């Protein structure tokens, strides 16, 4: 299965970084395409998008200044299938992407993604001190995977904190 395309441009408001694409995302070519993934619901409820987007509209979020990539490009059933070598290579590639496009916020969709990227452990949700790439806010959120047992409301509260760093208020309920 081929990797799915990144959606990137310079000076994004938010670059969302996942572990790797799901099998469903690999099949469809769209980010967060598994029907059990709560990503797009979280974004609208957190006030980060003006409406509920579908995975097939992922490229349209570039218009809002939101981009997508993963620390590992290869689709898999679960993140547990990712090898240490893939993480090592992905960490280098991801850092280069961040340095090149300079997003305001890099949102790591899962603590494990940030742990693999930064080499750090024990972080809290939200903005991280001492970013790997200076001048970029590194923000850690829970994975939106349906396998994560955190309540949707808790996830929404964490994601909504990103608005502080991009100066945004959409007025969503």
UniProtKB/TrEMBL annotation:
Signal peptide: none annotated. InterPro entries: MUG/TDG, Uracil-DNA_glycosylase-like, Uracil-DNA_glycosylase-like_sf. One of its GO terms (biological process) is base-excision repair, AP site formation. Residues 8-151 form the Uracil-DNA glycosylase-like domain. One of its GO terms (molecular function) is uracil DNA N-glycosylase activity. It comes from the Bacteria. Pfam families: UDG. Keywords: DNA damage, DNA repair, Hydrolase. This is Mismatch-specific DNA-glycosylase. It comes from Paenibacillus silvestris. The lineage of its organism: Bacteria, Bacillati, Bacillota, Bacilli, Bacillales.
